[in-house]
C-alpha cells in the first residue's frame, strides 16, 4: 500500500510540475532573472506550494501518528553545517544555471531533451559520489550518509 501511495504522490507531483511550467527551464530562468526580463508567474506556484505545505504541517502537528507508519520521524539537527551549505549552493547554482532542480528534471525526462538526460545523469553521479564518500556526523544528527 505504501508503494502505491508513493507512486500516486509522485505522479501527482510530476503532473503539478508539468501543469505549472516548472519543467520548462526557460520559464524557471525567466523567474530567476530579476534584473532582466523577469517572469513573476512562478511566484504563484511557489506561493501555492508554501501554503499547501503550511496547511499540511498544521494537520500533521495535530495528528497522533502517521497513516502508514507507527510514528513520525522528524529531523533533529538544528545547526547549519558545511555539507548543508555546500549542498544548498550546488542546488541553487544548478537551478539558476540550468533551470532544473531534481524533481522537475525527473518529470522533464518525459520530454526527451538531451540536456535534461545529461542533467539527470549528473544528479545520479553526484548521488553516487556522495554515497561513496564517508561523512562524519556529530552524535545525535538525524542526517545519515546512507
TrEMBL record:
Keywords: Membrane, Transmembrane, Transmembrane helix. It comes from the Bacteria. The chain crosses the membrane at residues 44-63, 84-109, 115-133. It holds the Pfam family DUF6691. This is YeeE/YedE family protein. It comes from Pacificimonas pallii.
